[in-house]
Amino acid sequence: MSLLDKFLEQALSRRSVFKDKRYLSVDYVPDDLPYREKEILKLADILVNILKGTRPSNIFEYGPVGTGKTAVTQLVLRKLKEKTDEAKVPFGYSYVNCRFYRTNYRALVKIATDLELKISKTGLPPDVILSLIMKRLEENYMFFLVVFDEVDWLVKYSGDDILYQFTRLNSELAKSKISLIGITNDVRFREYLDARVLSSLSEETIIFQPYTQDQLYGILLQRAKLAFWEGVIDDEAIRYAAAVAARDGDARKAIDLLRVAGEIAERKGDSKVAVDHVMQASEEVERNIIKEVILTLPPNQQLLLLGIAGLSKTSSKIVTGRIKQTYDWLLSQIGRQPITLRRINDYLAELETLGIISSTIVSFGRHGRTRIIKLEIPVEVIEDILLKDPLFAEIYQELACVLAQP
Ligand SMILES: Nc1ncnc2c1ncn2[C@@H]1O[C@H](COP(=O)(O)OP(=O)(O)OP(=O)(O)O)[C@@H](O)[C@H]1O
Ligand SMILES: [Mg+2]
Question: Could you say which of 3.20.20.70, 3.40.50.720, 3.40.50.300, 3.40.630.30 is the CATH number of the domain covering 37-207?
Answer without folding.
Answer: 3.40.50.300
